[in-house]
Write a structure and sequence with these properties.
This protein is of the alpha+beta class. Helix content is 19%, strand content 45%.
């Protein structure tokens, strides 16, 4: 499946997801660098969602989740399910092909009796970008979800932000020279074939004005 087809699949899938879930919340933190993107996803499950998760981990149906069962789940997921994350971020509408440098997952709070107590799943993904994001103009698309209560996107100092869409309650700050964008996952609207379309996703456009960049070629202006 191509990245563009995967993008369409993910957007269609999101349209069938309930708008809220009291028992599952997510936090996404992205650090965008010149040629890589570090993405941390924190999932917190409570109530019936936590119980359902633990039941899926309890492969021997003992009503108790062991550390071995948790480790087996993580190993199986890392071996068979990481390709889905290639559809979480697209650069330049998928024309810039990202690769997964690394993926790791930690599950905490799952061991013990199957009950409704909290489970936390933290996934760390590092994407490799084949060309510099700090040069030229780029658009970066990030998959959203109504259960993402907080999104944090950190841009390198050399990456000017031209526009951003799809983050509600947007706040901006600066951390060690990096611009930080924070808020809740929201709905962005855009036009496809003359029709208004909506999706849970963030679109960032970056880059410098070509005219300003070209002024550096003229030494008599310095």
């Amino acid at each position: 499946m191509s990245q563009k087809n995967l993008l369409i699949f993910l957007v269609l899938t999101l349209s069938f997801i309930p708008l809220t879930s009291a028992d599952a919340t997510f936090t996404n933190e992205l650090q965008i660098h010149d040629t890589s993107v570090d993405f941390t996803i924190t999932e917190v499950y409570t109530g019936i969602d936590a119980e359902a998760f633990k039941l899926s981990l309890d492969t021997d149906n003992s009503s108790t989740v062991s550390q071995d069962e948790v480790d087996s789940f993580v190993e199986n997921f890392e071996r068979n399910n990481t390709r889905q994350y290639l559809g979480y971020i697209l650069v330049d509408d998928g024309d810039v092909v990202l690769s997964l440098d690394s993926f790791s997952m930690q599950v905490s709070g799952a061991e013990g009796n199957v009950n409704i107590s909290e489970i936390k799943v933290t996934s760390n993904i590092v994407y490799r970008v084949p060309e510099s994001l700090e040069s030229g103009k780029h658009n970066i698309w990030i998959l959203g979800h109504p259960a993402i209560e907080k999104m944090s996107i950190s841009l390198p100092a050399g990456m000017p932000l031209m526009s951003i869409d799809g983050i509600d309650e947007l706040q901006t700050s600066c951390d060690s020279g990096r611009q930080v964008l924070e808020g809740r996952s929201g709905i962005r609207s855009f036009v496809v074939d003359g029709r208004q379309t909506f999706e849970y996703a963030v679109m960032i456009e970056t880059g410098k004005s070509g005219f300003i960049a070209d002024l550096s070629r003229f030494s008599f202006l310095s």
